[in-house]
């Protein structure tokens, strides 16, 4: 057991003793023994034998449910849930609900904790019914935002995006936090992706647009809208969406370059594409931007392309850029020099392949793929391309 858990056990023991002491008669008779339950002494015995879990159980049994012990029972239930002992948490919270003396406000507090217990236990139907009942009976109460938040969590876990959007919209009206706004935008994007799989382009595009109405900074919605437009051969409109994504967050320029290049090649050639690359490279250089420009310059002047790359690496050194410079040098070398450069290229290439490309700005999780929801902390829209020496 952690130090916090042990402290809680000791606190409960002291609290129970203090509570029993307040009820102890002042007479010199023996009602003291009768006033302190046997469960309390049993709990102390377990505590002395380092049997912390059994001690908690015993102290719970010795505590009566009243206004003075309500918070202790609630805290104990939360502790059991966090420890993974879900059934014990459910038992405590259901026991509290069965007490007729608790107030309406206390009942709502217990119901919220019980709903969390059910979700942790995978009893999603029971959690859903309880929360929906609370949402209908506790409207405009102080608990409504928490009720809606748990419902959104539930529908998100079930991937019921239509329900998540419905409840999420109500939650944003109640409390328009940045986190909830961002999450709602991604729910629309998830719905759009499902429609894309069915090739329902128009409703998919509408979902992406609704995501942008909810969260104007949603890069994913702009990129997704561009993808839908591209499937419909609407390349000019797709280019506008991709450029909008660059304006929303310049960290994602490296992500949109392949799509942007394809769209420009379909209609206008490379002129507008190169101008975009040059402008973005002036604002915030990245290896992907630099290499896209090098690729273009190589078509007309190989020597200039190499000089440009060297100059950019001096200003913005990256391992990926250095690898590409070696690759250019290999083509201009012969004999042992070429062999040595080839070995160096392979070593650096292995290093680049081993490095993660994306990182969560919330918890630090990193990986090779772009996840719109962090697999570790489950936060939406916080995973971005890595920049710096080992990234872009």
Structural write-up:
- With 392 residues, the protein is an all-alpha fold.
- It is built from 20 helices and three strands.
- The protein has helices at residues 3-22, 31-35, 38-48, 52-62, 70-83, 86-97, 104-120, 124-137, 144-158, 161-174, 178-197, 201-214, 219-231, 235-248, 253-267, 271-283, 287-298, 302-315, 319-332, 335-354, and strands spanning 358-360, 366-367, 383-385.
- Strands 2-1-3 form a three-stranded antiparallel sheet, with no helix packed on it.
- α14 packs antiparallel against α15.
- The longest helix has 20 residues, at 3-22.
- It is elongated and about 90 Å long.
- The chain starts with a helix and ends in a 7-residue tail after the last strand.
- 32% of the residues are buried.
- Residues 23-36 have low confidence and may be disordered.
Offer a concise description of the structure.
The chain has 392 residues and is mainly α. The protein contains 20 helices and three strands.
Q: How many beta-strand segments?
A: 3
Query: What oligomeric arrangement do these chains adopt?
Result: single chain
Largest sheet: 3 strands, antiparallel
Helix percentage: over 70%
Characteristics:
single chain, about 400 residues, mainly alpha, three-stranded antiparallel beta sheet, elongated
Please render the helix and strand layout as text.
Layout lengths: L2 H20 L8 H5 L2 H11 L3 H11 L7 H14 L2 H12 L6 H17 L3 H14 L6 H15 L2 H14 L3 H20 L3 H14 L4 H13 L3 H14 L4 H15 L3 H13 L3 H12 L3 H14 L3 H14 L2 H20 L3 E3 L5 E2 L15 E3 L7
Antiparallel strand pairs: 1-2, 1-3
Helix pairs in contact: 1-3, 1-4, 3-4, 5-6, 5-7, 6-7, 7-8, 7-9, 8-9, 9-10, 10-11, 11-12, 11-13, 12-13, 13-14, 14-15, 15-16, 16-17, 17-18, 18-19, 19-20
